[in-house]
Amino acid sequence: MHWLLMRTRRTLALLGYEYPPSYLLIAYGGYVITVVTAAIDRFAHLSQTIAPSGLQWLAVAVATGTGWLPMIGGLLHKRHIWKPMLTIMTSVTVGLFWVVPIHADAAPLLLVISITMSSAVATVRANVFDAVVLSGVLGAGVVTGRVEQGWLIAAMLCFGVAVGRLLQAQLLLLRRERQARASQAVLDRAGMAREIHDVVAHSLSIVLLNVTGARRALQEDGDTSEALDALKDAEAQGRAAMTDVRRTIELLRTDGESESAQPGIADLDALVSTFRRAGTSVAFSARAFTTPLTSTTELTIYRIVQESLSNASRHAPGSVIEVSIGPTSSGVTVVIVNDIPDSARRHPGGSGLGGMRSRAELLGGHVSAGRHGGRWRVEAFLPLFDDDYGDGVTQRHTARVTSDG
């Protein structure tokens, strides 16, 4: 039984469809039972016939053998299955059976089983070919008087096509749903990685700046008090990072339902303050917004500023970082500029800039970064959301202007 299931799965894989093995086994079983029934009826008929011809005995024997070929070929073939084989072998089998016409013949049912099986795995063009061939066989049987109630068999053929196509459509729909789930899982993992990267990269930058400040205070000035303050800030930032990571993961697990957990424009002052306490000079300004921003837009602005400050403090230590945020006629512009030290080198492989661009593109915006006038400039544009976004709009961030030099 295990061998049969394995062979059936391989057959379905060669056909390119993920039907349960039981479907194919049931279809093959029905096909074989019908072949055996038609053969037994004819052998019984011939045994009661006076002087049956040898041709009739041979035709029934060959028909019985060819009736098994589709199943044997499908289960034993290892590399390729010729799909028209079922239709052609069925036509040959039924034609040979009809050499010995009998009453209440089961042979025409092979046409119905065959068209149902082929419709479940064939393309539309191949299905039309199968239907034309098998309908032609049925028509020949009706004309020659081999088929009783031909209209009923014709209706069953139509029903078989419908059943096969419905099975195939359902399977393809399930396949698309699985692919969509897999794609969504990839996007979810990428989103989680981006969120955690933003949180951890920022926190590590602050921790490293504080630790560097503590080391210099001890080495150069012997000021244990200043060093202790820097280490306390580093410890606090590390704990805050762990809290942010847990909060981010929980937020992503709950599909972002808790908007209060997401940082926004109101949290930029605190963000800038952490860099200043770590010894980075930051000039921050934000112009007034007359239109409320969605929580998603505010989170994107926060992450872009956070990532840009982390990059600037890591690659251009000691330079003044200028951050400006303000509305335009159609959106929000975020600009971060810092000096480029002579020792600065390109560090390939980072995901921060790519993450910023992905965030902006998801909102219909864009991010550009590069040298501009001898300085490094990151500029982001995010379009304003209109009222169609409804639930995404939050009123908790009021318009304000801050400026620090």
Which features would summarize this protein structure in a list?
405 residues, alpha+beta, Heat Shock Protein 90, 3 domains, six-stranded mixed sheet, 6 strands, 10% strand, disordered C terminus
Question: What is this structure, in a nutshell?
Answer:
With 405 residues, the chain is of the alpha+beta class.
Topology of this protein?
Layout: H1 2-15, H2 21-47, H3 54-76, H4 84-97, H5 108-119, H6 124-143, H7 150-221, H8 224-253, H9 268-277, E1 282-286, H10 295-315, E2 321-327, E3 331-339, H11 352-362, E4 366-372, E5 375-383, E6 402-403
Parallel strand pairs: 1-2
Antiparallel strand pairs: 1-6, 2-3, 3-5, 4-5
Helix pairs in contact: 1-2, 2-3, 2-5, 3-4, 4-5, 4-6, 5-6, 5-7, 6-7, 7-8, 7-10, 9-10, 10-11
Strand order of the largest sheet: 4-5-3-2-1-6
The biggest beta sheet is recorded as: 6 strands, mixed
The level of helicity is 55-70%
Query: What is the string of SSEs from the N terminus onward?
Result: HHHHHHHHHEHEEHEEE
Distance between the termini: 80 Å
Shape: rod-shaped
Cα Rg: 37 Å
Please tell me the total number of domains. Answer: 3
Number of helices: 11
Given helix and strand content, the structural type is: alpha+beta
Number of strands: 6
- Stretches where pLDDT is under 50 for at least 5 consecutive residues are 256-260, 387-405
Provide the β-strand percentage band: 5-15%
Mean pLDDT: 80
